């Protein structure tokens, strides 16, 4: 008998990788995906029409969500508003990430009471870990000031822990791959300890979780790439800039924040990998993959325009703008006071 799996957020980088891996297994599962109806998503899911059940809807609309909640065995809940949009529109973020999760849980309790609910949370719930980068799941949840995304994840976790379903929560590290440059690049202090994981490895963890309910039941895990995926943020950016032909990481002083972000190294990340055996990629694999994505022509073209490109990026730095404007409130948010002298 086929196991019925509901996947939310299947159009995202991670969600689509989960979908591909589930479908690659064959006819072992009956897969339902739930996502927002857009022209882009319709095109993205078109190859899967007929092989998976596609339900379009709004995660904050009960009548939409209800259509996906009947007789599911496993639910992989990835749908979320992520930064920077999550922080720019906190009300929307709360509705989708927190209220949407609450609606989904409530309807599953009514119509799929035996479902195993697997949730993607975030390393952001631990807050700023510059001074103590080794993180374990028992550490206090202390989101950085202004991190609306982290707050929504903490509230969603609370709902899950108190629900009547069986569940497991994976707190994801920085998932790098298909990542777009945004203003958040400058929010992260250069000396941040960064442990990445690739979308492929992360998706494998969720896919393998389907058949490891007993070992995962009612537990929270940190999901990261492990020791072979660790690097300091300034080194990560420097190598990325080199790969894309952008030259040195030579932005103006005060372009990068000193504090109030997140990330670190998962001291207990091996626990989940020992159960699910999902790690295959290393940091070097990630950089090689990035290198292979860019053609020699594109890299040469970027190299020619690297100065104006970096100037454009620099203008998007909110810490630098706060410093230029002498905005004391924002400077206090982004910078350590002693570093402003």
UniProtKB/TrEMBL annotation:
3-beta hydroxysteroid dehydrogenase/isomerase domain sequence ranges: 7-164
Membrane spanning residue stretches: none
UniProt xrefs under SUPFAM superfamilies: NAD(P)-binding Rossmann-fold domains
Name of the protein: NAD-binding protein
């Amino acid at each position: 008998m086929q196991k019925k799996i509901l996947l939310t957020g299947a159009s995202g980088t991670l969600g689509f990788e989960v979908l591909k891996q589930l479908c690659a297994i064959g006819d072992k599962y009956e897969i339902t995906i739930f996502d927002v109806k857009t022209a882009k998503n319709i095109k993205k899911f078109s190859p899967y029409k007929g092989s998976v059940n596609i339900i379009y809807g709004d995660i904050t609309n009960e009548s939409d969500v209800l259509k996906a909640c009947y007789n599911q065995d496993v639910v992989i809940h990835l749908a979320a508003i992520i930064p920077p949009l999550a922080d720019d529109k906190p009300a929307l973020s709360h509705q989708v990430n927190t209220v949407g999760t609450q609606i989904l849980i409530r309807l599953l309790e009514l119509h799929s009471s035996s479902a195993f609910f697997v949730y993607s949370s975030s390393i952001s719930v631990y807050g700023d870990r510059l001074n103590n980068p080794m993180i374990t799941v028992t550490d206090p949840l202390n989101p950085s000031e202004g991190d609306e995304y982290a707050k929504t994840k903490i509230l969603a976790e609370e709902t899950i822990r108190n629900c009547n379903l069986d569940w497991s929560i994976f707190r994801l590290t920085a998932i790098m791959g298909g990542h777009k440059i945004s203003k958040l690049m400058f929010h992260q202090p250069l000396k941040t300890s960064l442990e990445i994981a690739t979308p492929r490895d992360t998706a494998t963890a969720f896919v393998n979780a389907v058949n490891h309910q007993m070992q995962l039941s009612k537990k929270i895990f940190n999901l990261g790439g492990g020791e072979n995926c660790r690097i300091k943020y300034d080194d990560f950016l420097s190598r990325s800039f080199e790969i894309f032909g952008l030259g040195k990481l030579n932005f103006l002083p005060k372009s990068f924040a000193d504090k109030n972000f997140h990330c670190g190294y998962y001291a207990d990340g091996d626990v989940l990998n020992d159960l699910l055996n999902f790690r295959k990629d290393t940091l070097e694999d990630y950089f090689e993959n990035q290198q292979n994505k860019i053609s020699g022509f594109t890299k040469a073209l970027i190299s020619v325009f690297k100065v104006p490109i970096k100037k454009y990026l620099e203008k998007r730095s909110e810490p630098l703008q706060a410093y230029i404007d002498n905005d004391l409130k924002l400077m206090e948010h982004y910078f350590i006071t002693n570093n402003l002298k």
